[in-house]
Amino acid sequence: xxxxxxxxxRFGHLTAVDDVSFFVEKGEVYGLxxxxxxxxxxxxxxxxxxxxxxxxxxxxxxxxxxxxxxEVRRRIGILFGGDVGLYSRLTARENIAYFGKLYxxxxxxxxxxxxQLGEMLHMSEFMDRRVGGFSRGMRQKVAIARTLVHDPDVxxxxxxxxxxxxxxxxxxxxxxxxxxxxxxxILFSSHNMGEIERLCNRIAIMHKGRLSYAGTIxxxxxxxxxxxxxxxxxxxxxxxxx
Length: 242
Description:
The protein is α/β, with parallel strands linked by helices and 242 residues long. The chain has 2 domains: 1-75 and 153-164 and 181-242, P-loop containing nucleotide triphosphate hydrolases (Rossmann fold, 3-Layer(aba) Sandwich); 80-151, no CATH class. Helices cover 38% and strands 25% of the residues. It contains 9 helices and 10 strands. It has helices at residues 40-47, 69-74, 92-102, 107-120, 136-148, 166-181, 193-199, 217-224, 229-238; strands spanning 2-11, 14-24, 29-33, 55-60, 63-64, 76-79, 154-158, 185-189, 202-207, 210-216. The strands form 2 sheets. A 6-stranded mixed beta sheet has the order 6-7-8-3-9-10, with helices on both faces. A hairpin with a 2-residue loop joins strand 4 (55-60) and strand 5 (63-64). It starts with a strand and ends with a helix.
């Protein structure tokens, strides 16, 4: 479903991503790990066609980000960390509906979808309030709904639980499990190892732009002879991924 094939990205003399390859199967929840600056977000931005690979290619459902970027965009939902980019003068409902319109959803279908997402993300109390006064967690929920409004097959989530309290983060994990049951393919990055362990069977670890590991969590434990995922991650990073 997602094939990353020997992808590199250079900015002048800086190599942000260096010859990275991994794949994500249909219906899989796949974790992308790495410290800040490891190349995770750059890799996900190339998947989303925001950045163009310097070399290599990425295919989403068989479509190339290089030669078929429009087809890729039709099939993905994207949420990047940091500023979630909502329109502060619009309500939560209007923000979600606006992005649904951009994807060409018909009015009746869009209205039903917005209501469905509001219920799924427990947003009913603030759906018709302007986003400008929202907390970080409330804004993040709206951003997640915006990501899912067109019912994409492939979902890219970069630090999706940033700003969410414990209850909301638990709700997010239940939502991911529900989306997986629907056959969605999800790739997400997180610094929360407990979250990764609960949601993912397979992971990729990046360090200084290169791939340190790609495979199952169980196989990684066997490889490094450690059990705690936090300790494993620190060992991989401090040891340069060896």
